[in-house]
Specification:
Blueprint (H helix, E strand, L loop, with lengths): L1 H4 L1 E2 L3 E2 L1 H30 L1 H6 L4 H13 L5 H18 L6 H11 L1
Antiparallel strand pairs: 1-2
């Protein structure tokens, strides 16, 4: 609401709105995001962390619904489900296979 109040249709936005937007983009959206991403990569590894980059469009759509009043179509929901299923299948811990366990025991014994 504060940003909208700072805009006068006759003379355009107040100068502080541009400065505030630039500060937000530079500090929060860029620097903080990279710090959090770097921390995540150090905790789970680059391979696992990279899979979660696929969730960016899902969260972007959800934020558009919350903050911009956008509506999701069934195709958006299907796409989000496919992305989340792919992330789950890729990031889940590997299960040992029975055939490989028997091969390992035969090779070592």
């Amino acid at each position: 609401a504060l940003l909208i109040q700072g805009v006068d249709a006759a003379k355009g936005p107040e100068p502080w709105i541009g400065a505030a937007a630039l500060a937000y983009i530079g500090v929060l959206a860029s620097a903080a995001a990279y710090l959090f991403w770097g921390e995540g990569v150090s905790r789970v590894g680059a391979g696992t962390a990279s899979v979660f980059g696929n969730l960016l469009p899902v969260f972007t759509a959800l934020l558009a619904v919350v903050f911009l009043g956008e509506r999701l179509a069934p195709s958006h929901l299907a796409g989000a489900a496919a992305v989340m299923a792919g992330v789950y299948l890729t990031a889940r811990p590997a299960r040992p296979r029975a055939g490989r366990a028997a091969e390992s025991e035969a090779a070592s014994g």
